[in-house]
Amino acid sequence: MSSIIIYLIRHGKTIANERKLYCGKTDLPLSDIGIREIEKLKSEINYPSCERYFTSGAKRANETFNILYENEKYIELKGFFEYDFGDFEMKSYEELKENKNYIKWIMDEEGNVSCPNGESKNTYKKRIKEEFKAFINTVRKENLKEVLVVSHGGTIGTILEEFYDNSKNFYSWQPRCGEGYKIIVEILEDNFKINKVIELKKKS
């Protein structure tokens, strides 16, 4: 039996975060506030040194990584990109609340309703689950023991809801921008299991 340590870090703020807009596939950079916050967090949190680093490939994830690990290289894993909100991208609740398709989507408890020209909740979960399983297999085959991924709130929340504790929904698992978790993954014969999730703490 062996284990892998994976750090899951959420990217810094964008103008969409600040304005409370749906932003998934839209490839926004960090905002000026987001940059300043990540620079500040860099001195407040002990971000770990790892054997290998990954991002979702989004500008906001790559820029966050480059601030935190300016001299390190990373590999992009596009499957970890945020939810595709389709026609709801870069719009707010106030803009959408009278939209029948939007109401149908937010009221959908089964997860089968797609955003127009975007993903359904179940499609998104399936994508993240498949990418995470493939990621674990890659890490395992390359005998890596400690890795880090900079991605998105939805991605991190989905991984922890689906593979660790579904008594909390993925919104509850989402860390604040620039923050994240250390997770301990136990490697089994033909599978894996997340045994422990530790929130990254600011220095005391």
UniProtKB/TrEMBL annotation:
SUPFAM superfamilies: Phosphoglycerate mutase-like (SSF53254). It holds the Pfam family His_Phos_1. InterPro entries: His_Pase_superF_clade-1, His_PPase_superfam, Phosphoglycerate_Mutase. It comes from the Bacteria. Keywords: Hydrolase. This is Histidine phosphatase family protein.
